[in-house]
Model the fold of this input.
Amino acid sequence: MFLLDFFLIITALYQLKPASRSLLIEAHGAESLPYVWIGSAVALLIAIAVYRKILERFGRVRVVLLSCLFFVGVLVAFRILSATHASWVAVPFYIFVDIFGVVLVEQFWSLADSSYRTEDGRRWYGLVGTGGLVGGVFGSLVATLLLSYTPLQTPDLMLVAAAFVGLIFVLTWAMDRWGWLSRTGEDASPAILVAKAGGWRLIAGNRYLVLIAFALLLAQAISPLVEYQFLRIIEVAYPEREARTVALSLFFSVMGGVSIAVNLVLTPLILGYLGVLAGLLVQPVVLALATGGFMFQPAFITAAIMKISDRGLSYSINRAAKELLYIPVEPQLMYQAKAWIDMFGYRLFKALGSLIIIALTHWSLVGEGVADLGWVTLLGCVVWAWVLVTLHRQYLVLVNPKDRTG
Done:
């Protein structure tokens, strides 16, 4: 049932992701993206703080059910507003989709963490995570088919997502009635643990955690550069809204398929035979090569390959290798550090990446073409790889304390 729940969450999200991007490009152009990303980061930090307060007062299961109803109402409201063709609607809708994804995913893992009490139960997490990847592929294909073979248009995907959220509400209610959800340990949510742990100070006091955070957050700062270049190419290649939304939906389904294939085939081979460092280096090395290809020939195909090298590998082999890095860390400390990185660090560093784009494009420091931002991406990949090598040395010392030569 948890697998189905996560599948529905990601399916709903991938109705909204292509729609939010397509509508924003139509209303304000891709050049507005860095400013919206900064606004989204600020809104997410506020939303997480508010969510933490609500969770402390009402409890996890009730908040999940109420938030589902809230999201359905907001999605219906956005669909009504979109009918006015007001350009300002695209910005809050984009930010809402970011909040929607973060809150529903955090709620899901919070419920799963409190309900799986044994190691046997935690073995299902890998399968559940794969269910999320399948949901991304399925949701993107559903959006593609609806826009291609029915009278529905991009804004109608808001109502399709609302229907899936309604299913999530019904499933969560049923799981609670059947006793599958634990109501104990309501303060174990990552949002609350982050606040109680002192946030970044928890990581700053541990050199190994600092290296992990720097490696993961550096990747998050590079990601907006890749996203910006990709969506600028999409804007040029698909000037018509529905065609653009279909193209984005198809791309997301392909990226999800690549992530599943890498997860099932390459990840166990690379981690099993080449080790953690090889698994960690795959993403920056492949991304650097793909970026070089895009700089040589800026086109939709090369931009798509670059984007898949970033997010597709992040959702597969990089995620698996990242989890191995936390093995030497004491469990409670690990959980709290991951919570801060996932919920706060990622937003802050995405905003940093957005500021870099604004600065470089505003002062024309990257030339006249969007592909020139690739030089910054390449530099980031080099620094990222260097940090990973340094981190791996520390990892070997911690897992093999007798072998100080690493």
